[in-house]
Amino acid sequence: MSEREPNFAESEKPGQIRAPFSSEQVAALNIYQTDGIFHPFTCGNDVLHDAQAADGQEQEWLLVATPEGWTCSSEACDYTQEWAWDFMADPMMLDRDT
Length: 98
Prior knowledge:
- By secondary structure, this protein is α+β, with helices and mostly antiparallel strands.
- It has one domain.
- The protein is 22% helix and 16% strand.
- It has helices at 23-35, 46-54; strands at residues 16-18, 63-66, 69-72, 80-81, 83-85.
- The strands form 2 sheets. It has a 3-stranded antiparallel sheet. It has a two-stranded antiparallel sheet with strand order 1-5.
- The chain is globular.
């Protein structure tokens, strides 16, 4: 008999936090995004960004943390994401020596 993964609702997934994010969490999340140690969250709007790449605007579209959640760094995109991994928002991120 194989083990099944638990079927968690989006708001109940272990290790996740959901928007709204505190100002301390936003600061830590944005440090995480630009730190270069881990792969950052990127936009999931592939259709828009594939078209932008065809126009010579190829780049990795990073998500930017706000109190309301994540938004795409492209002004032309309305992609949002409401969750982050809890370790990414750890305020200790702000106290690290880089």
